Amino acid sequence: MTISYDRALRQQIRTHLRGHDRRAVTDPTKRHAAVAVVIVDSDIGEDRVDPAPVDDWIAGRPLPDAGLDGRMIDVSGGAAFFLCRRASRLNSHAAQWALPGGRLDPGETAVEAALRELDEEVGISLPDSAVLGLLDDYPTRSGYVITPVVIWGGGRLDPRPAPDEVVAVYRVGLHQLQREDSPRYISIPESSRPVVQIPLGNDLIHAPTGAVLLQLRWLCLEGRSDRVDELEQPVFAWK
């Protein structure tokens, strides 16, 4: 079932974020970045189609699993979040699924950076007052500490992705985060920590994005304060 996009949901998310003992990571060896977790409205069946052939964005990586073709289909409906397909020509994390975001500019806060990157990557400008709160910091294998900023979009909004950075923007219903087969965990020889996978559409979303989405579910939707920063990333995301 879809989740209603209404004032009750907005207040629930804000309350859970305010009551959370947020984990902030200070690591001088890593750069600081922020991502925008934008909560918007969506209609069932409005799923878009990837504008590029699969070979253009898979970047030589194997498809996620048997029966999965990597496409984000049958995911819209009710309260949702924006999920971006990154451009395949990018120097890092090309063709991966991601939330709008990027590194902080000098003197910039995580909130300021998330709102700026949302405007630059997705063409949506929102005020500070739209911010509901912050999730836990997530340290990445690629040298960043990511601060997720949860933002209330206030309606449907109209994303206009920057073509040099984003192939497409999808509205993924929050109810998709509560699928019975989610989350999934696998082990890899390179790490003793479990790799988290969030099934969405016909793909699997890995950390760091997958970890952020898992905490969005646990904390904002279910009121659980479980930590996610120790969940591992797949090796292809370590660079």
- Structural class comes to alpha+beta
Would you list the SSEs in sequence order as H and E? Answer: HEHEEEHEEEEEEEH
Approximate strand percentage: 25-35%
Share of helical residues: 10-25%
Q: Overall 3D geometry?
A: globular
Description:
The chain is an alpha+beta fold and 239 residues long. The chain is 18% helix and 27% strand. It contains four helices and eleven strands; from the N terminus they run αβαβββαβββββββα. Strands 1, 2, 3, 4, 5, 6, 7 and 8 form an eight-stranded mixed β-sheet that branches. A three-stranded antiparallel β-sheet has the order 9-10-11, covered by helices on one side. A hairpin with a 4-residue loop joins strand 6 and strand 7. It starts with 6 loop residues before the first helix and ends in an 18-residue tail after the last helix. The relative contact order is 0.22. This is CoA pyrophosphatase.
Short description:
With 239 residues, this protein is of the alpha+beta class.
Q: Any key phrases for this structure?
A:
239 residues; alpha+beta; 8-stranded mixed beta sheet; 3-stranded antiparallel beta sheet; 4 helices; 11 strands; 18% helix; CoA pyrophosphatase
